[in-house]
Design a protein that fits this description.
By secondary structure, the protein is mostly beta strands. The protein has one domain: monomeric porin ompg (Porin), CATH 2.40.160.40. It is 10% helix and 54% strand. The protein contains two helices and 19 strands. The strands form four sheets. It has an eleven-stranded antiparallel β-barrel with strand order 3-5-6-8-9-12-13-15-16-18-19. The protein has a two-stranded antiparallel sheet with strand order 1-2. A two-stranded antiparallel ribbon has the order 10-11. About 9% of the residues have low confidence.
Amino acid sequence: MYYLNNHHEIAGSVLLNTVILALLLLGFTQKTEAQSNSGHNHSQAPMEAMDDHGHHAGSINTHKWNGHRPDSNAPIGVMGNHTHHKGMLMLSYRYKYMSMNGNRIGTNSVSNQRVLEDFMVTPTDMTMQMHMFGLMYSPTDYITLMGMVPYVKKSMNHLTRMGTRFRTESDGIGDIKFTGLIKIFDNYRQRVHLNAGMSFPTGSIDKKDATPMGPNQQLPYPMQLGSGTFDLLPGITYLGQHNDLSWGSQVNGTIRLGENDRDYTLGDALDITAWGAWDWYNWISTSARMDWQFWGNIDGADPALNPALVPTADPNLRGGNRLDLLFGANFYVPEGPRFIKGQRLAIEMGFPIYQDLDGPQLETDFVLTVGWQYEFAAY
């Protein structure tokens, strides 16, 4: 079982995947360019094409990226997946729902009774809901700025050795994220941009609720709303199009900086995802995506938590990795009056096909994301 437990492993993994992706892209691009040059007929009239703004551009390069199709944006579960032209704004809203039920140790599901052999209390199931409000703005053609503000609501059910059942809940603003998307390649209907972000500790790590131990008890790590630390968010995104087909991949890391004021640091994380989509018409596309997430155990410990009481309070039982398979659909309004044209709706739902958890830990059942996006000129 492989976990990413420190900054060096995260940074090395992100760098390795970035180099591999760049080499593959370079080789494919050179091959495409050679084929294009060898097959070019100088006697033919230039083909009519559409520019990124959807206007006829006459004799421009027909390999130009088409940003006005439903699959020009990645599946809605992928964040920071595209850039914009200078002066463009995008408003967005996402709703994410995650359901977890039952516990797992490694790759094996275990019963509540098995967990209660080692702990006084076991979690039985959990739901997480997140409302994510986003804003993107492009001051240049090569830089897009993105801000994301989440509102998070969590609920977890528990069972004690005595047979008592109880629920804890928490809700509030999560960690706010700001990211710069820096475009470094845009040709042959392929794009690459770097993701350079920072997460700010605006989410609470002091959430409390009533438990059998008494009122106003500090909640374990999974029920808190933020990391309590400033976190670096490096990454790279690759996009491609060919006729009605589009594809992409993204590698993102989360590197925790320092220790929070409750004496612990959440584990670093790595997210590797790849997808393909088909543009059925100019207003609808469907997609399939694989998403592999890795996250490390917690360094340090909250002194208010007893790790012998419940596994969610043990900092050494928080690491793991999970591979999800997700299916989605994007809807796009290509024409219409102002405030209607350019509207996007999207949905994506998936489930794990592999989980390896340093548990006992609650295992994920399914993930659902729905969203709305609207792009318009700022001036």
